[in-house]
Records
---
Amino acid sequence: MTPHRPWWQTEIVYQIYPRSFQDSNGDGIGDLPGIISRLDHLQDLGIGAIWLSPIYPSPMYDFGYDVSNYTDIGPEFGTMNDFKTLLAEAHRRNIRIILDLILNHTSHQHPWFKEASSSKDNPKRNWYIWHNGKPGASSKPPNNWQAAFGGRAWEWDAHTEQFYLHTFLKEQPDVNWRNFELQQAMWDVIHFWLDLGVDGFRLDVVNWFIKDRHFRDSPCRRWGLRPYDWQQHLYDRNQPETLEIMKQIRAIVDEYPHRMTVGEVYTEPPGDPELVATYYADGKGLYMAFNFAFLFCPWQAAAFAEAVDRWDALLGSNLWPNYTLSNHDQPRAFSRYARGHDSLARARVAAALLLTLRGTPFVYYGEEIGMRNGRIPRNRLQDPLGKRYWPFHSGRDGERTPMQWDNSVHAGFSQAEPWLPVNNDYPSVNVAAQQQESDSLLNWYRALIQLRQNEPALHSGSYQRWWVKDNVFCFERQLNDDRIMIALNFAPKERNIPLPQDVTWQTLLSTQVAKHHTLATNETHLPGYEVLIAKALSKGLNHVDPST
Ligand code: GLC
């Protein structure tokens, strides 16, 4: 019997960065009607949910991660009616919608902050985190905390003569999660969208919600590009009370059938899965917390295998893992792993890994066609992080360039000059071209997704590592009597892999070996960068003669 699993465990989630997906009104910025017009592509690909990066009204200092109204749609993205249409059209295609909720901070233009900063005795004053300067030196911030996007985490408000806290830009004041009324206002936001029918939330930087009551200084630890990296973040994030907030959010979302959350628990690269796992709160907190391990894995079978084993072991059989190769904050996987003529073959191996593991795969828009990180000239930089740290860090614009639909002007993304330049490989790297080529990366993603859906062992089975050897990662997924073996050759050279004796394996999907159909020997030859996915045939049953 196939265990009944909720959709967020069996489906594939596709992340859309709305500014860059499809423009419908010729302003160079992607929008909701644009997304609606591209739903067929997503349905064809076989994904089961879309995570939309923020679409709320925002002054766009951090491109939507600075929200000025939680319960409306930003005019550049469309209207509430457009959103309702998107929800209905997506649902009609069995695609769920996950909204990005940014609850650690608002925009400084949010009416709550405007009120809070209007006077010290405004009823909403404590919805944010205000503090006097250092005793005896009132013009100095109360402690040494740094902002993740540069500079001090405290901004002086001349009008009310106090500092307010901002973990990111000064235009993103942190809310005070210790305030009961603020909490209630956030619960209302969550109810608003759930009542409207959204299927879940991606929760931004959840581990920052609660700060130390005593605002103790962060100890220094090491050198890094940003002063933020020099500090040990003992007091400005991961406070134990945060888990209580996670549980409260869970309780609300649980009231609605078939909904979910996935939280971003920010940890320094290469990540801290032990810490991330705590945010599941043993099944009472986040439904899933992102595991970003793959974003920082070098191109080595052993590195990926270790990341998977660690995550799988940490979560055990009761909590549900997830994997992701790229997102809007990190350079795209295609570019990270690019190596000349091998780049495409590597992208196929990475996709096969992502889509055959136990855990929900998150696919970043454009990954399915092998979009690279764009090179953004300095005068076109948009991301505040890039503007501040260029040329040491060029920011996140490179992974946010417009989706490449076809070889027409601006890659079919917009009639107007797009807000970020289109990658110049778009005449050959685009959806329309790859739809035509049977062995394109797009069709490889499709085939993998289809296979994952057709084989319950792949979406719901257990995971077991067989071995990692000579840069080949081999593992098994099993559900009842179904056994599926996945062998991924990360090396450019051929390898021989041992297979268990007495089992006949039938190829389900592969990049090259497929022609052989059955693999009956106890050793199989894997060409360079080969992906081999094969199913164990029951002895004596369905035996396929290798000569046929
Ligand atoms: C998260 C988002 C990132 C944003 C930041 C501040 O890390 O993924 O894009 O800039 O939070 O909201």
---
Amino acid sequence: MSSDQTLQFRNPDQADQLAERLETLMADIDEPVTLMHVCGSHEQAIAKFGLRSLLPDGLSVRMGPGCPVCVTNMPEVDEAVAVAEQGAIVATYGDMFRVPGTQKSLADARADGADVEVVYSASEAVELAAEHPDREVVFFATGFETTAAPTAAILANDPPENFSVLSAHKYVPPAMEVVAEMPDVDIDGFLAAGHAATITGYGLFEPFVEEFELPIVVGGFEPIDVLLGVERLLEYIKADVAGLENAYPRCVSKEGNEQALETMWSVFETTSGEWRGIAEIPGANLVIRDEYAAYDTRERFDVEPASGGPDPLTEQCICGDIMAGKADPDECELFDEECTPGNPVGACMVSSEGTCKIWHEYGGHPDF
Ligand code: SF4
């Protein structure tokens, strides 16, 4: 997108008009409304552009389970640490590097002498394997559909024999279902992540809307995109209709990227898995199919979980509640005290998509 187009989606006059429309809609709805977005990039836009200050009284927009690094479970980090300590080169995205496992992060493992490299893509991890033919290179693969599809493309294209993937990839729709069903979470509509929908297509959400009778709008990441998504959701709520809408048509189609989806589902299948601090979620973890077992790190290495429990401070972390929409970062007693980006206790303070890190960076309070 050109910078002119970008500025078009940051137009203050349009933002004011949308804010006025939100005010009118909330007056018509006449009861509190809670919306959930499912993406750290939405939270970044909301915080960076101060969008919560434009929301009328009674309208709350909370972050859900939209930070893939934050929902990566501690035992998955432990597995990556275990293979690094067995001599493999572990390559992972920068956001994962300092995420705490039960006892160690990958950064701790590197400080203790393990070989851990930060990469920007799965293909960079493959390059690492090609550069080190005598070493095992393990790509600790995290992220939702947006990164699972490129990981799958790598595995489908005959990577080097010394390369394998430790999949911690997650699949978002089942997590939305679990959050929608939580008795203590009362969500009136979802703002779905535009980038994941570029892969999956927005049609994926049709069964959810039908079953849960909640509106979903797929939204982009510029401030006008977010405000428009919120406005469209309020229109559905006012009309008492559980609709599905694509408010990000410049990138998202109903079908998504069919070739990427075909590759992703040829390599991965879903299984039940624990999302850190949230719940065991059926069908929300992506594991490598038997056909690609030769490249599955779990088949090559002993990935026994670490013994011993986590640090007592870690047990006070409420990151899971934050990602389930039950709490805000400043309700955590450790927020900006014992837990800071320089000394993170939980994953939500590590990742640039983690709510705690975002709130820390933008002043620490929702009314920024
Ligand atoms: Fe967890 Fe730190 Fe966030 Fe508290 S502030 S919920 S300890 S990540």
